[in-house]
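COMPLEX REQUEST
Ligand: 1-deoxymannojirimycin
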Amino acid sequence: MYGSPQKRDFISFTVTKEDDKTIKRQSCWRVWRRMSRLQKNIISFLLAIGIVLCIYILLHRKASTSGMENAVKAPPWDYGVGEDYVHFENDGQPGKKADRNKEDIANVNHPDTVNEVDQDNNVDEPVIHQPGGDDDEDDGEDEKQNENHKIPIKHQPKYGPQNKKQEAVLAAFQHAWKAYKAYAWGHDELKPVSKSWNEWFNLGLTLIDSLDTMILLGLKKEFLEARDWVANDMNIKPRKDVNLFETTIRVLGGLLSAYHLSDEPVFLEKAILLGNELLPCFGSKSSIPYADVNLMTGVAKAPKWGPDSTVSEVTTIQLEFRDLSFTTGDMRYKEAVDKVSTHIHNLPKANGLVPIFINANNGQFRARSTVTFGARGDSYYEYLLKQWIQTSKSETMFLDDYLNAMNGAKEKLVRTSEPSKLTFIGELLSGERFSAKMDHLACFLPGTLALGYKNGLDEWHLQMAKDLIHTCYQTYARTATKLSPEISHFNMVPGTKGDDIIIKPADAHNLLRPETVESLLYMYRITGDEIYRKWGWEIFQAFEKHTKLPHGYSSIGNVQNVKDPGIRDKMESFFLGETLKYFFLLFSDDENLISFDKYVFNTEAHPLPIRDSQGKIVQ
Ligand code: DMJ
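STATUS: Structure written out below.
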């Protein structure tokens, strides 16, 4: 017997190592065969438990080193006392650590890629840039470290205010935030008069919209508190019908932007969860998504008020979904919105302009609906240009559509008023009848035109931008409060005296909207003309004077009534997300603070990185 000492002696003298193994295997087999059934059962049971335990330990180890786990349980690094602006002082370019986290998080949807990622990116140290800009003067050793730990940094913007005007904007933000924190924390909007809140989607809109603004303003403590709310209290699946567009631009865009600027994995984790919950909207019969989805049930549908989706809404989700895909490696989001873009691109259009409604079931524009650069049309045009820029000009379909639309706008919609010859952009009612009506929302256009010019488009784009921003400014400067109404009508009758701008009582409200300030930022950065900062400062002061309350800021009902502007008891989330952010950037002397060469702002002022044609972030 191989098991007996005698045989073992003999065999050990004559066989090779391999034969020895064979003998051991055979002897094990014999031992096994000699066992009783009970013994075999016990051993099999123990073996099974052992295997399950091993698998569990292996998986657990993998998870605890992944960004996903970090995101939920603890931040990837500590913000210790005295580490002011630590990590806020990078240029928003994620480092290697962030890449690893991103890819690990992406593996929520791609579990099969976990091993590859871990092998490639086993870096444990976070990217930390100390205050004082020392990183700019790295010696050889540090440079070597940079190579290992982060994308080389060309410029380190200083977050936080650098001058008096920015300090004033910071103070405005702090005033608004203090009230939001005290009376509306985690809710969608502050009601500054009744000192309570308003709920729209139950997603903490103001908090999410404010995240990246707080980074820019250098509000570290507030940012971290908000981050903790996102990590611990944010419910991505409220029992609520939410609007795909609004949720995408404010929440998905806000989370992605906060992620890119902070490298905090929790924002990407939540963005992925939210992106997944929004995907049912794309299950319509056509390529056009439904307008609404219930985040808890996943049921998507047309809005309550009618069968159609809004054209600007279905075409203003692409920057965010594309960014989510490129950040995670999960192409489902990009593919969903690409279908929408291709579909709209292929629909016939008059002069490159689009009607404002489209049916999600048959995929057709609603015949005879209004053409406008205001409500429901606006950001279709904005995202044509910005998608071309986001993709480093590789997706030329968007440029073609944008150029057609701008030519169409110039020919069909842009007119001058009397007697001052203000250039404005009107609308086509029923798709054909000109109306000299301009929403404040359309004041995004000068900024977009200037951005196009900066990216190589014809000089006339800049000229039209200059003419239009002058008019947008006039809609502020000519009212009693120096704040713009929601809608302006323009006098076009030659030879008349009086004002060019007519404000109807129903249109006289001001919602703290950002579009004019946004365009002033583009105009200032692209032309360098100080007049745009001067106008911006006037507008800022008007907001301070007429919309500031003891507890936050509020929309007002009548811009023509200085004594009683009709406080409306609502602070929109975009006041913190957009208006104050654009003011802060406008008054910055550093054009590299969220450089237009590296970032493209989504329509809610959340900067997303420009990428090359492969989706890699441009340095
Ligand atoms: C914001 O939600 C966005 O800027 C959107 O594009 C238009 N409406 C508001 C601000 O006015």
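REMARKS: Residues 1-23, 60-155 have pLDDT under 50 and may be disordered. Residues 249, 379, 441, 513-514, 574, 578, 603-604 surround 1-deoxymannojirimycin (CB under 6 Å).
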